[in-house]
Write a structure and sequence with these properties.
The protein contains eight helices and eight strands, in the order βαβαβαβαββαβαβαα. The chain is of the alpha/beta class. The chain has an eight-stranded parallel sheet. Helix 6 links the parallel strand 7 and strand 8. Helix 1 runs parallel beside helix 8 and helix 2 runs parallel beside helix 3. It binds D-xylitol-5-phosphate (DX5) and zinc ion (ZN). The site of D-xylitol-5-phosphate (DX5) has 22 residues, from strand 2, strand 8 and helix 7.
Length: 218
């Protein structure tokens, strides 16, 4: 079964606990937390203290997506705060292997994120060391953008690399995913679906249930 990871970026930040509880009760599997620094991406969101507070109000594993420069500097603090899955951008550092090992040694699942223009072939050497890859299907920085259709071919390419190099790898996809296109994303090979605006804008419970109804078949 493919997993659903609602992104709190589109939740009501004044009522985060309420929105998260609603998604959790309706069947969300993982909570996706977008950390932006205003340097790697043109937007600023939340950081370590918020992850620490979220940890206290949800049982869901926290999937922290770092959109920051020099991610290696902050990894110990994010894991200490409660990140269970931690990913950083391929484009944000040159020390991929060292950073992945650092995350795993501290006890979290390690992932690398690739921007829409970064080829999956760049991951070939690091793939055996990864727990997951996060494929961006929009340019990182904002919720509510349109899914880039060429992402589907990229997911298929990554799936075939995974079959050769790391069968346990999970493929996570993030950006522009709605109930209307999620089936094409899981058919291409996604194991974990991130959705922000399609979950938190409108009725959270029925949005989660509509996604889960499709994901349970994969
Ligand atoms: C964008 C973030 C996403 C974002 C997705 O940079 O990484 O996680 O919340 O939002 P939607 O699902 O609305 O495209
Ligand atoms: Zn994200």
């Amino acid at each position: 079964m493919a997993l659903l990871a609602p992104s709190i970026l589109s939740a009501n930040f004044a009522c985060l606990e309420r929105d998260i509880k609603e998604a959790e009760t309706a069947g969300a599997d993982i909570l996706h937390v977008d950390v932006m620094d205003g340097r790697f991406v043109p937007n600023i969101t939340i950081g370590i203290p918020v992850v620490e507070s979220l940890k206290k109000v949800t049982e869901l594993p926290l999937d922290v997506h770092l959109m920051i420069v020099e991610p290696e500097k902050y990894i110990p603090e994010f894991i200490k705060a409660g990140a269970n899955w931690l990913s950083f951008h391929f484009e944000a550092t040159v020390h991929h292997h060292r950073t992945v090992e650092q995350i795993k040694e501290l006890g979290a699942k390690a992932g690398i994120v690739i921007n829409p223009s970064t080829p999956v072939s760049f991951l070939e050497e690091i793939l055996p060391f990864l727990d997951f890859v996060l494929v961006m299907s929009v340019n990182p920085g904002f919720g509510g953008q349109k899914f880039i259709p060429t992402s589907l071919e990229k997911i298929r390419k990554l799936k075939s690399l995974k079959e050769k190099l790391n069968k346990n790898l999970l493929i996570e996809v993030d950006g522009g995913i709605k109930v209307s296109n999620v089936e094409s994303v899981v058919k291409a090979g996604a194991d974990v679906i991130v959705a922000g605006s399609a979950i938190f804008k409108g009725d959270i419970s029925s949005n989660v249930r509509a996604f889960k109804e499709i994901l349970k078949n994969y």
